[in-house]
Design goal:
binds zinc ion; 3-stranded antiparallel sheet
Length: about 70
């Protein structure tokens, strides 16, 4: 399946092709996905950083709503 992700190599918000999975369940499924623009293959380190960034953004949004 395809999913969008900001490529750590070429920096474009792009579509990665995930070969082995038919259903996108978690960001772990992105490991080994290939950038269709530059051919970069995502590593687990890329995904960990990406998931952490999303978690931080969610936390910041939540704090904003509660007035902190
Ligand atoms: Zn790329």
């Amino acid at each position: 399946m395809n999913t969008s992700y900001e490529c750590p190599s070429c920096g474009h918000e792009t579509v990665f092709y995930v070969k082995t999975k038919t259903e996108f369940k978690s960001y772990d499924d992105l490991i080994g996905a290939v950038c269709i623009i530059c051919g970069y293959t995502l590593t687990d380190e890329n995904i960990k950083r990406y998931v952490r960034d999303i978690a931080i953004k969610c936390l910041q949004e939540r704090l904003k709503k509660t007035g902190f």
